[in-house]
Design goal:
mainly alpha; about 230 residues; two-stranded antiparallel sheet; DNA Binding (I), subunit A; 2 strands; about 70% helix; binds zinc ion; rod-shaped
Amino acid sequence: MGKPEDPELAKGWLAHRAEQERRYRAEHPERHLEAHRRYRERHPDADRIYRETHEEEIREYGRRYFVDNKARALENQRRYRAANRDKVRAAKRKYRAEHPEKTAEESRRYYDPAKARRWRAKNPEKAADIIHRRRVRLIGGDARRVTPKDIASILRNYRNRCGYCGTPLSPVRREWHLDHAIPLKRGGRHAIGNLVPACKSCNHQKSTRLPIEWRRVLLRRSSAAA
Ligand SMILES: [Zn+2]
């Protein structure tokens, strides 16, 4: 039976046909898939043509899917990122290198001073390290990331003592410094190998001396004390 002439009847007929088709697909999924496959075989470019002619709809569909399935989409994204950490990191680095202006604009837009303050308060060593690396790079020096774990291992190597005078260091991180043995201003690197735990007094007195110059000061000091 064909489509009726009367518009009201035609509407009912179309709805009925759509319902029949839906039921058919649900009852015979394999037949439906097979028909689909055959159609694609006959029209090998159909998918590509559809993609090219419906770009906006496809994007809108993706957007709507993301909104409707936000929790699931975020979970998928999280799982993918966890499984491909290095790949994601490399892709981000590549993107930032290729789009410096966009990157700067995005970080301006998403920068939240209150959030940044909270992060710095929670991660003082990481925050100090970031500032350090930025400063070193500004003067053209070499900067490596120094993590809290690295700092703990430096401290262990010096048995929790000042690397210059041997005074035991307070467990309170603010009470001592990480000194750059070769000062940054004199071409030293910001990296584990150039860091020495130092009491406030040594760090202050050593200032921008090279290790050999500083050793002379220490020798003079110990012979004066003897
Ligand atoms: Zn000291």
